[in-house]
Design goal:
five-stranded antiparallel β-sheet, 492 residues, seven-stranded antiparallel β-sheet, alpha+beta, 36% helix, Alpha-Beta Plaits, homodimer, Uridine Diphospho-n-acetylenolpyruvylglucosamine Reductase, domain 2
């Protein structure tokens, strides 16, 4: 499917195009500028593979001066720029735009400094999430946010999407774990924002940049917080005969004042797919399982696990299993972390939704998702960060069956609008990208969207950085609102 | 001293002034519009009493419609607006501007909802910080940020300044404890930003608004996180023969992976002033004392207190006292919380600085402050959030002695610039206001300040909301840079 359905591309003239390419060729060595289709094809999509677009060129700068020069050249010629990390994003944040340049930060792989006393790491944007923890491990430290793609995804992309992970309930999202950024704006200005000190004066540019989906600036360097490795961790796996009781158990744990290191739910569709794939030992009789983790000192963990077991039993758990050792704990989590690829094995295609809802509505929303699944005749596996109320319904479909992508997209859109209806949001950690740009019209009022556009204009008045992503135009929203809901829409 | 030394007021014509006052009189009942000098005098300053300015008028709206109408009227007539909570701010964020309207939110005192299950409170901006905790107490919950002024200061002001407190090391600043805001912009548009769900799509307007010092919008309502009251808390008071060893102890505790509920330092000047005032039982022989608090379950607290005592002893503490009961714990803290008024008793005037520094430079910076104190012949008591590296040097002076305010201001400015020099910031929690606007020129580059101005223009192109605060103009910075440092400056 062509990308950016709602995006009217900047008209880039033939002259501007060749002038820009000549300039880029002067800035970058030959291997760092890709223009032929066979070389740009690998960049045509990110993790949202349903949308593809070949870029005009792919630039692979190796240092800051080259990034700045590429940005300035694009700015001068009014050519769009899409920054890209590992391309693991699920919402199309790194999908190229027509006639645009993809700016890959893949060569920025250096861990510049680990300061164990200050518990910080200074890294380049192309450093993989897990590589930070590996480098910090000798000091007993790690980088807390742990998206499931952490083996591959990079810190630059994590910043763009404000990534979370199964442990962000206790340890926070990217925004809570990044202390400072060095960023380049579209005109080539380089800003240092945030500090290693706890707060910074002036407007909070740091929080503004984090989660801005590559639309305000390009990350050149990040200083992140490192967290002391807990002495130990243990996880309880609880089985439930229905999702309603599992949801009640989540509410009971949180209401008791416990902040588990992780609190995840999976329904039977998900556990069945996972069990065939990684043999994590999940209870396939259960309609839903919960994974509740505690970390800290042995005494803290023992007390918290006991408290959680009592609450899980009271909520009606039919079976409780406590990980007996680190290997078993990792096995329990391996299933959860492999949920997406496991579902990928049993269906030609799937869409991963990412709505968040107030925890008290978990049972109601899950029931409604099951109804919608029947209505659309599409299977849906539910995997989610239950403690955060962050849902990840995986809608299964076959893109080769006529109309199935349209149905899946519509089904997904209705889940997101249901999330907004109960007081939640359309995305918890995957970003809006191109995938959820329509639902932004439901999430926000015209005044709120106008504030986003004004903000964008403050940094990038010509809208060259990742155009068409995340924030819909007023025209686009009025068209969308005319149709009333996700329901009556033509294919995205 | 007249306020806003660096601010060139908007020219407001006589006609605009009377037209505006007539409109305000139509919007507000008579008691809610103050124009006579005797009625506006109480609003001429906030906690930064060295700067005073009578406003054109003070508006005391009672509901959202009135706030919006007042903002629209001021916008139409191009008259500046300064929003005001309790006026306890220490950096002049609520100091009126010439020919401007003070918009007091004092009547917005309603706690709209406490949702114990979701652990949130929805409150109006004029609700006092401590009143939230009082309302949440029956549910075993409280609002964590605890500025020393918490008895009086309001949540609207806390949002504007991103306030902290002695427990923010563990529980975060205001930005970490506010989930959603309803805000009015200068043109009267009303935005709902953030949600009770963990993350929100779009740019992070919530973090942007928090700490924006009333320059982007006016808070109409806040949804805040409530925290479960820990089962118990205990504090260790440690004495040190010099500040260097006390600073080392702070570093050792943090490096050990402990996050104390509070970690505060006071030097002898501060403890002496406090002890005379509240008799908290401080060791007056010590050059510095540390207060290190642990909270949690009895087992957690016992383990953490033991670990901290071991580290404090190893760092050379000459005396350790552990609070024996809740009354003693509160007594130890009473001294710390009363430090500002205690210093106020022993000097006609004082300036409270608010720089933050990387913890590793604590000893070096304290030594330099002592040298500067001798150089300027002005006493300085040091009270600070040591765990955060957030200093609060209290510079004592007498405004009636010629040149003392100038000297104190210059001394303070040099402490702030020293903070920047060692990699810290000029403010941790009090805001920039008018007090530290000059040091912003040292903290930020021209490109960074330009980004701030562009951001401001996105929300308030005519610069009517709290003009002249927090972000200096390029002209102002070039003048300041010409003089080289805080040193050669004329009085602020």
């Amino acid at each position: 499917m062509p990308a950016n359905h709602h995006y009217v591309p900047h008209p880039v003239s033939e002259d501007a195009r060749s002038a820009l390419l000549a300039e880029l060729a002067a800035i970058l060595p030959a291997e760092a500028l890709r223009v032929d289709e066979e070389d740009t094809r690998p960049y045509e999509c990110d993790g949202l593979t349903a949308y593809r677009q070949l870029p005009l060129a792919v630039a692979l700068p190796a240092d800051e001066a080259q990034v700045v020069a590429v940005l300035k050249a694009c700015h001068r010629h009014c050519v769009p720029v899409v920054a890209r990390g590992a391309g693991t994003g699920l919402s199309g944040g790194a999908t190229p735009v027509t006639d645009g340049v993809v700016l890959s930060l893949a060569k920025f792989m250096r861990i510049i400094e680990i300061d164990a006393a200050a518990r910080t790491a200074r890294v380049q944007p192309g450093v993989r999430n897990l590589a930070i923890s590996e480098a910090a491990a000798p000091y007993g430290l790690y980088y807390a946010p742990d998206p499931s793609s952490q083996l591959a995804c990079t810190i630059g992309g994590n910043v763009a999407e404000n990534s979370g992970g199964v442990h962000c309930l206790k340890y926070g999202l990217t925004v809570h774990n990044v202390l400072a950024l060095r960023v380049a704006l579209i005109d080539g200005a380089v800003l240092d924002i945030g500090t290693a000190a706890p707060d910074a004066p002036g407007y909070d540019l740091l929080a503004l940049l984090i989660g801005s989906e590559g639309m305000l600036g390009v990350v050149l360097e990040a200083t992140v917080k490192l967290t002391p490795k807990p002495q130990m961790a243990q996880v309880v796996m609880a089985s439930f005969a229905d999702v309603v009781h599992a949801a009640d158990a989540v509410a009971a744990i949180i209401a008791a004042g416990i902040i588990p290191a992780g609190l995840e739910m999976m329904d039977r569709e998900a556990t069945a797919a996972v069990e065939d794939f990684v043999h994590a030992g999940y209870d396939l009789q259960a309609a839903a399982i919960l994974l509740a983790e505690s970390d800290g000192t042995p005494a803290e963990v023992a007390a918290e696990i006991a408290a959680m077991c009592a609450l899980l039993e009271k909520a009606g758990a039919s079976q409780l299993r406590i990980s007996r050792d680190e290997a078993e704990r990792l096995k329990f989590w391996a299933g959860r972390k492999a949920a997406f690829p496991a579902v990928g094995r049993i269906t030609p295609d799937y869409l991963c939704m990412d709505g968040t809802i107030p925890r008290k509505h978990l049972a109601r929303v899950l029931t409604r998702i099951a109804e919608l699944s029947r209505e659309y005749g599409l299977r849906c596996a539910n995997v989610f960060h239950a403690g955060d109320g962050n849902l990840h319904p995986l809608i299964m479909f076959d893109a080769n069956v006529p109309d199935e992508l349209r149905c899946a997209t519509e089904f997904g859109g209705r889940i997101l609008e249901l999330s907004v209806e109960v007081g939640g949001t359309i995305t918890g950690e995957h970003g809006v990208g191109i995938e959820k740009v329509r639902q932004m019209c439901v999430q926000f009022s015209a005044d709120e969207l106008a504030a986003f556009h004004a903000l964008k204009a403050a940094f990038d008045p010509q809208r060259l950085l990742n155009p068409g992503k995340a924030v819909p135009t007023p025209r686009h929203c009025s068209e969308y609102r005319l149709t009333g809901s996700a329901r009556g829409l033509p294919p995205a």
